[in-house]
Structures are given as structure tokens and as C-alpha cells.
From TrEMBL:
Species of the source: Actinoplanes hulinensis
Superkingdom per UniProt: Bacteria
Name of this protein: TIGR03086 family protein
InterPro entries: CHP03086 (IPR017520), DinB/YfiT-like (IPR034660), Maleyloyr_isom (IPR017517), MDMPI_metal-binding (IPR024344)
Chain ranges of the Mycothiol-dependent maleylpyruvate isomerase metal-binding domain: 12-126
Length: 189
């Protein structure tokens, strides 16, 4: 079976897993567009997201307070496996029903949150490591939906920075990145 969310995740995961696989060890200390994260921190956050959202799907308790270092052993392969397990966890239609007991938000909203995390942090990782990144156009409407409904809360909670101004000619993805507080023209220094 599949759901709208697992289908969207299925579109986002391959690109992000490819980016993770392409990170070289010497890039782990590089800056990212997400100011509080170096590449290592961003990768560990992505691991936390794909693992914790498996728990969210199961309506289990989730601890976001500690981000363990997951970059050990065959971590690139481990990420791909964990991300696929997350997609599978969200493929049961019942997962989308109701409100998350741990996070207090509708399960559907949390599913969109995962999509946005992958789309935006995929861009962060690509730019920090000099890798190409193409966002599947089907991911832009759900990203916009989430940012429209949860962007202000995300800024209040510190998950997003203040919106950045972009020119009228900016493409849709650049506009969405700007809503998260990212400068779409950011370049690794």
C-alpha cells in the first residue's frame, strides 16, 4: 500500500540518499546554509529525522532533545536503509489518521514536515558539498502547503529563520527556500 505522504517521501528520499552517499569525509566540517549546522551536524539531523519519523508513524514516543552521532561504520548505506524504512512506515493509510500523541499535530501535517525537511535539507547538503540537486516538481506544492500553514510557527520555534527577500523573477523553489530563512544564492565559502 501507499499513501500521499509515502508517495511524496518516495520522490524525495532517492535524491537525498544520493546526496548523503556523495558526501566526502573531508567535507564533514564544511559550513551549510543552515547556520547552526556543519555538514556533520546536518547529516546527523537527517538521520534523526528519518529514524524519529518512523517512531512518529508508529505513534511511539520521540526524543528530539539529543542528536546522536550516526556517522559511524557504513553510515551512507545506513542512511539509505533508514530513509527507505521511513517511507515504508508511512505507507499504511492508518498512519495519517488523527493527531500525533507525542507532537500534538495532525499526522498528515507531520508527514508534510518530513517532506519539507528532506527537500530543504537536501538543498542545504547539496550546496554545502557542491553536489547537483534537482527537486522533483511534485514536491513543491506540498512544501508550499506546509510552509503556508506552519511557517509562522516554525519561525517562532526557531526551526526557520526570518523570511528572506528574493526577486520577482525567482523560481518557485527559491521562493520556498526564502520562506524558510535561506538565501537561495548561498554559496559555500
Amino acid at each position: 500500500m501507499s499513501t500521499e505522504i509515502s508517495d511524496l517521501l518516495g520522490r524525495a528520499v532517492p535524491a537525498v540518499s544520493a546526496l548523503v552517499a556523495g558526501v566526502r569525509d573531508e567535507q564533514l566540517g564544511h559550513a551549510t546554509p543552515c547556520a547552526e549546522f556543519k555538514v556533520r551536524d546536518l547529516l546527523n539531523h537527517l538521520f534523526q529525522v528519518v529514524r524519529n519519523f518512523q517512531l512518529v508513524a508508529a505513534r511511539a514516543e520521540v526524543d528530539w532533545s539529543v542528536t546522536p552521532d550516526s556517522l559511524t561504520g557504513a553510515w551512507r548505506d545506513d542512511f539509505a536503509a533508514e530513509a527507505e524504512a521511513m517511507v515504508a512506515a508511512w505507507s499504511d493509510p492508518g498512519v495519517l489518521d488523527g493527531v500525533s500523541p507525542g507532537m500534538g499535530l495532525p499526522q498528515h501535517t507531520l508527514g508534510l514536515m518530513m517532506v519539507v525537511d528532506l527537500v530543504v535539507h537536501g538543498w542545504d547538503l547539496a550546496h554545502a558539498t557542491g553536489q547537483p540537486y534537482e527537486v522533483d516538481p511534485a514536491l513543491l506544492p506540498p512544501t508550499a502547503e506546509f510552509l503556508d500553514s506552519m511557517g509562522d510557527m516554525g519561525r517562532q520555534m526557531g526551526a526557520f529563520g526570518p523570511a528572506v527577500s528574493v526577486g520577482a523573477g525567482a523560481d518557485r523553489f527559491a521562493q520556498l527556500l526564502a520562506l524558510t530563512g535561506r538565501d537561495p544564492s548561498w554559496q559555500a565559502g
